[in-house]
Amino acid sequence: MKKRLMIFVAVIAVAVVAVGGWLFYRRSQTTNAGSNADSVTTASTSLQTDSDLSGDHDVLVVYFSRTEGVWNGPLEIGNTARVANFIQEATNADTYEIIPEEDYPTDYEETTERAQEEQDEDARPAIKGDLPDVTGYEYIFIGAPVWWGEYPMIVRTFLDVEANDLQDKTLIPFTTHEGSGLGNTQSQLESQFPNATVLDGFSVRGSNAADAQDDVTDWLEDIGVTN
């Protein structure tokens, strides 16, 4: 009887050890699996961070904008300037405003007439002050109101002067308009800068520009240019 009791106790002890070992093994496997999952998440997050734009030395927003001589003016802030500001806030970009050496008319009709004359003459109106050094930037937004289906000729001045340094950049058009959309601004950049990467542009009616921040943010996410 005593011998049977000893055998029974031994069997119970072996079973307890076996169950304990199995539980320890399962716990260690679960812990390792959790650690591996955390590593994958961290690696993915790190990769996303590395691909984000840091701002100051990566992105430049170049724009031409007006507060007078516009369809819904005069304005406190120009329509294109508003969009440029939204882009700057979302990307931490540097900005450069194209300012004409000779002011455009304050009357809308007179402005459209002058814009047509400049286009007919293939003019390159002078820009006031120094132009930016674009060599240190990878992404360059180029924005303006659409005049007669394309960039104002003063923007063409900027593009021509900076042509050599823009050839290997990523160029991104954005426009304000009253029915023209992007006009031919995107195809113009693609034609003038065949070695550059031209991303899909953004356009908004000038009268809606003040309320376009969410649309700008969505667009920037779509093209992969965010801070």
UniProtKB/TrEMBL annotation:
Flavodoxin-like domain ranges (all copies): 78-222
Protein origin, superkingdom: Bacteria
Region spans: Disordered: 107-129
InterPro entries xrefs: Flavodoxin/NO_synth, Flavoprotein-like_sf
UniProt KW keywords: Membrane, Transmembrane, Transmembrane helix
Biased composition, class Basic and acidic residues, residue ranges: 111-129
GO molecular function, one term: FMN binding
Record field: transmembrane: 7-25
Name of the protein described by the UniProt record: Flavodoxin-like domain-containing protein
Species, as recorded: Streptococcus criceti HS-6
